[in-house]
Amino acid sequence: MRARAILADPYLRELLQSGFPVRLSYRVELWAEGRVFDELQRSVEWEVRVIFRGVQQTYEVIQFVGERPLSLGVFARLEDADVAAARPVRVPIRATADDRRFYYLATLEVEALSMTDLEELNRWLHGELQPTVRGQRNPGTALSRGIRSLATRLLGGERREYTQRSPSFRPSR
Question: How is the beta sheet containing 22-32 ordered, strand by strand?
Fold first, then answer.
C-alpha cells in the first residue's frame, strides 16, 4: 500500500491550512491463513504527521517510529510535503518458511488532528518527555486514540481509513 496524493483532497487541505495537522497512521500486519481463523503473526506501526506553519507558509513532515520523531523535511509546497509523507517504507516483517499461506494487511488511517494534539506534539518536540518517560502518561493507548478521534470529529476534523490486502503467498524456502 502506498499513500498517493492524500493531501490533495480539498477538505483535508483546508483543514491543514486552518491549523489542523494531519496524521497518517500506518499499520502493516502479517497474517497466516488458518482452517477456521487466520492468525496474526507480526505487525509494525508508524505515523507521519504534516503540520502547516502559517507564519512561515511551510509544511513540516515528521515521521514517528515508536516514539522517535524523524523530520522528513520542511516544504514550501503542499505537493512536496505530500510526496515526503507518502514515501515508501520497507517494513521488517517476513513470513517463516513453512507450509502455510500468508498475506499482508496494510491499513492507513488519515486524521486531521485537534489543537490539543498539536500542542502536545509541539511540547514533545521541544523536549518535554518527562510525563511519558516516568510512565505517567502513555499517548499510544487505545483509550487516548479514541479520545483524540472523538475530539477531532467534534472540532470538525476529518478521519478516513484505507485497507489493502496482498494476495496469499507461500514463502520461498
Answer: 68-75, 58-65, 39-53, 22-32, 102-112, 159-165
Closest CA to 12 of 120, 155, 158, 121: 158
3-state SS track over the chain:
CCCCCHHHCHHHHHHHHCCCCEEEEEEEEEEECCCCCCEEEEEEEEEEEEEEECCCCEEEEEEEECCEEEEEEEECCHHHHHHHHCCCCCCCCCCCCCCCCEEEEEEEEEEECCHHHHHHHHHHHCCCCHHHHCCCCCCCCHHHHHHHHHHHHHCCCCEEEEEEECCCECCCC
Mean pLDDT of successive 10-residue segments in the chain (173 residues)? 75 84 92 92 93 92 88 94 89 85 93 62 59 46 50 57 92 78
Residue 64 lies in a domain: yes
Is the overall model pTM greater than 0.90, yes or no?
no
Domains contained in the chain, number: 1
> Is 75 contained in some domain?
yes
